Amino acid sequence: MFLTFAASSLKLLPASEDHQIGDSPGQDLIENIDFTEVGAVERIRAVQVISKDRPGDDTKHILAELYGVSISMINAWITLPDLPSPDKKLSANINTKRTTAQDLCAKGISAKLVSKAYAVTEKTVYNWLKPPPLKPREEWGKRGQKPKLTKELQREVFDWMVGDTQQRQFDAVQMVQERHGIVITQQTVSNILKRFRHVEVDPARLASVTHLNFSIPGAI
Question: Which InterPro entries match (predicted)?
Fold first, then answer.
């Protein structure tokens, strides 16, 4: 009698309550999504696009492994009805997108689908898939341009020339080349003097400039 009563009581459970119990885990995951996280909206949109064009459990497993989340979270992302408008400030940087695209293609997702998922052209994705140059770009240097004195170094040259009355025979051009490996001309030295002439210095120290062992056009 007790078993019969228990079974009958389960049948009396309202359908609405049973529905709520089944949906609550996914709803909890959706409510815990942080859309202010950098790249969150792009990541969810990419999952939705890839899952729509390539449905199946294997795709979900690939996405879950790639993004480091559970299958339940992937399902929550897929069923998310509306996404907020993308914010450029919260957009993932190009290196993150490139790495993700490389991983997706390595796991069998087509470049065409990856380009659609991240709203870029196929050419961009193929460029991301190319191996990096042998030499880092920052080490290439600017072609056709010789290194120049920065404003700080120009100030340093000026201080050399007016800072010590005993240094009357030093060659500023040679000193710059020896210390910094930058080749400058006497005209550059003259321009530095003119640029910093407004700085207030002791007239006796400034007078030492006239004793340099080379001619400076427009020297003081």
Answer: Homeodomain-like_sf (IPR009057)
CA 146 to CA 188: how far, in whole Å? 14
Question: φ and ψ at 178, to 5 degrees?
Answer: -70, -40
Token duo for residue 186: 């006497």
> Which structure tokens are listed for 166?
């005993």
Cβ pair 213, 169 in contact under 8 A: yes
Cβ-based neighbours of 181, under 8 Å, separated by 6 or more: 147
Sign of CA dihedral 98, 99, 105, 108: negative
Give pLDDT tens digits for 122-171.
888 888 888 766 555 555 555 556 777 888 888 887 777 776 555 445 57
Please state the pTM of the whole predicted model. 0.43
Domain ranges across the chain: 21-129, 151-211
CA distance 54 to 44: 15
Range 8-11 contact pairs with CB under 8 angstroms and sequence separation of 24 or more: none
196's CB contacts (< 8 A; 6+ apart) are 154, 155, 158
Q: How far apart are CA 177 and CA 147, in angstroms?
A: 11
